[in-house]
Amino acid sequence: MKILTAAQTRELDQATIREQHLTSAELMERAAEALVEWFCSLLDQEQAGEVLVLCGPGNNGGDGLAAARLLHQAGYQMRVALLPAETQSADWQHNRLHLPEAIPVADISEQQLPAILPGTVVIDALFGTGLARPLAGLAAALVAHLNAARARVVAVDIPSGLFTEAPQPREDVAVRAQHTVSFGTPKLAFLLPQNAEFVGEWHVKDIGLSQEFIAGSTTPWYYTDEAAVAGALPARAQFSHKGTFGHALLLAGSRGKVGAAVLAARACLRGGVGLLTARVPGCGYDIFQTSVPEAMCLADPQPNFISALPDLQPYQAVGIGPGLGQDAASLAVLQQLLQTAAATTAHQKPLPLVIDADALNLLGQHRELLALLPENTVLTPHPKEFERLTEPARDDYHRLELLRQFAQQRRCLVLLKGAYSCLATPTGELHFNSTGNPGMATGGSGDVLTGLLLALRADARLLPFQAAQLGVYAHGRAGDLAAAKTGQAGLIAGDIAHYIGPALREAEA
Ligand SMILES: NC(=O)C1=CN([C@@H]2O[C@H](COP(=O)(O)OP(=O)(O)OC[C@H]3O[C@@H](n4cnc5c(N)ncnc54)[C@H](OP(=O)(O)O)[C@@H]3O)[C@@H](O)[C@H]2O)[C@@H](O)CC1
Ligand SMILES: [K+]
C-alpha cells in the first residue's frame, strides 16, 4: 500500500470527487461515517458518556462536526467546542449549518478553554493534513490543556499538531491520542517511533478514495500489508528437489553465542532452504549438530570464533553475523567473503549475502569495506547498528533519509529493524512492515530473521527485493502467530522460528 504526502492526499480528495461525481461534502460525510462506525464499535453510548468534539476551522473540523451530528443521531451525548478562526472551509460551514440544535456548542478562547474531566472522551478534529505551521497561541494552549486533562482521545485523521511527513520542532505541542482514525492510506507520521506517544493505536478506514489516482501517484513510501506479499512465495512444483531451493551457508556463532547460530539455522530451514551448511567455531560443533540435525556443520579450526572462510562454490547464498563476535580473524573472514562474493557470479549476478549483527558492527568499524558490498546484499541493522554504519540521526525522519541514501549509494537492501521495520531499496523506496509485536523484542529474534532471509535469498525463484520483503513480513507474522499462543512476554525467539512455516504458507501462491 502506498503512503502519500499531505499534498497528495488533498489531490486524492479532489480526484475522488471528480471521478465519482461527488460533492466534497459527500466525501466528508463518508469520512465521518467511517469514523462514527469505528467509534460505535469501540464504545457504546453508556461507556462513552458525554463526548466532546474539538473542531478546528478546516475540513478536519468539518469531519468533527459531521461526526458530532451522526453520533448524536446514534444516541450519544455530544458537546462541541470550536476553535475560532478568520475563515472556515466551505464543508465546515455546511456541517456547522447541519449540526442539530440539541448539541451544545461553545467558542474556545484563552479565558474559556473547554472543561475536560479525566476520562472524558474527546474527538480531536482540530487540524489534519492541512496543518501549515507548528501550533502556537490559542491552538497550542488548547492542546496543552487537552493533554493535561487525562481524557480518552480519538484523533481524526492525524493527531492535531503532528505534521503528516515532517518532524516537529521538539518543543512543539501535539495532541496525545489513544486512537487515531485515518482515511484511505496510512500516514508516514504513524510509522515513526518518535510519534507513537501522540498517535496511539491507528486505524485506516476505506472511504472509497480514487484507486486510479493512488496507482498513478509517485511516492518513496510503502506499507507492506497482507496484500503486498499475497502470493509472493511460489508454490513448489511436483518434481522439485533439494537443489531447487538452494544451498545456503551460514557463518555464525562464537564461544557463548552458539545459540545465535542454532536459531538462525532453524529459521533458515523453516524458511524452506534446500540445504543448509553452517560454519561455527570449534566449540559449537556438538551443540550445533545436536540442536539442528537437519543442517550440515563445518567446524572452524579455531575453538572460540570463526577464522576461516569455507570454499563458497557450492552455495547459492551466504549469511553472516549472528553471534559472530568481533575478533580480527572474523573481520578477515568477512572481508574475504565480500571480495569473493562479488566475484562469484551466477548468471552475471553476485552471490546473495545477508549481513547482520556483529558483521554489521565490523563493517561500521571498517567502513572501507562498504565499497565491497555486492549489489542487492541484505543488511539488517537495528538503529544503533545503522548509526555505526552512517552517522547519528537528528530524529526518525533524518534517519529515514540516511537509510534511503545508504541503500541507494551502496545498491543494497537495508532493513532498519524496529516496530514497522523499514526496508530501503537501491532505487530509494522505503517499505514499512506491518507485522510483528513488542513480544519480539527478545534475544535471538534478529538471528531468526537472518536465517529466514538467508533461506529466501537462496531461493532463486525470488527476486532480491521480493525475498527481503517477504522475509521481514513473514518474520513478523510468525511472531504474531507465536504470541497468540505464548503471549508477548512469554515469546522467545525459537517460537518465532517455529511459526515461520505457517506464516509463509499464508503468502503462498
Ligand atoms: N483528503 C482526503 O482524502 C479527505 C480529507 N478529509 C479531512 O480533511 C482534512 C484536511 O482538511 P484541510 O485541508 O481543510 O486542513 P485542516 O487540517 O482542517 O487544517 C486547515 C485549517 O487549519 C488552519 N491551520 C493550519 N495550520 C494551523 C496552525 N498551526 N495554527 C492555526 N491554524 C492552522 C488553516 O488555516 P490557515 O493556514 O489558512 O491559517 C485552515 O483553516 C483531513 O485531515 C481530513 O480530516 C475528509 O473530510 C475527506 C477525505
Ligand atoms: K486531528
Task: Write a short abstract of this structure.
This protein is α/β, with parallel strands linked by helices.
CATH domain fold name of the largest domain: UDP-N-acetylmuramoyl-L-alanine:D-glutamate ligase
Helical residue percent? 25-40%
Q: What is the gyration radius calculated from CA atoms?
A: 26 Å
| Average pLDDT reading | 96
Uncertain regions: pLDDT < 50 for 5+ in a row?
none
Q: What structural class do helix, strand and pairing data support?
A: alpha/beta
Shape: elongated
The main pleated sheet reads as: 10 strands, mixed
CATH superfamily of the largest domain: Ribokinase
Distance between the termini: 19 Å
How many DSSP E strands? 19
CATH secondary-structure class of the largest domain: Alpha Beta
* CATH-level-2 architecture of the largest domain: 3-Layer(aba) Sandwich
Q: Are any ligands bound, and if so which? A: ligand NPW, potassium ion
How many helices? 19
> How big a fraction of the residues is strand?
15-25%
Produce the secondary structure layout.
Blueprint: H1 6-19, H2 24-42, H3 45-48, E1 50-55, H4 59-73, E2 77-82, H5 90-97, E3 105-107, E4 121-125, H6 137-148, E5 152-156, E6 179-183, H7 196-199, E7 201-205, H8 211-216, E8 221-224, H9 226-229, E9 247-251, H10 258-270, E10 275-280, H11 285-291, E11 296-299, E12 317-320, H12 328-343, E13 345-346, E14 349-350, E15 353-355, H13 357-365, E16 378-379, H14 383-389, H15 396-410, E17 413-416, E18 422-424, E19 430-433, H16 445-458, H17 464-486, H18 493-498, H19 500-506
Parallel strand pairs: 1-2, 1-4, 2-3, 4-5, 5-6, 6-7, 8-19, 9-10, 9-12, 10-11, 12-15, 15-16, 16-17
Antiparallel strand pairs: 13-14, 17-18, 18-19
Helix pairs in contact: 2-4, 4-5, 10-16, 13-14, 16-17, 17-19
Bound molecules: ligand NPW and potassium ion.
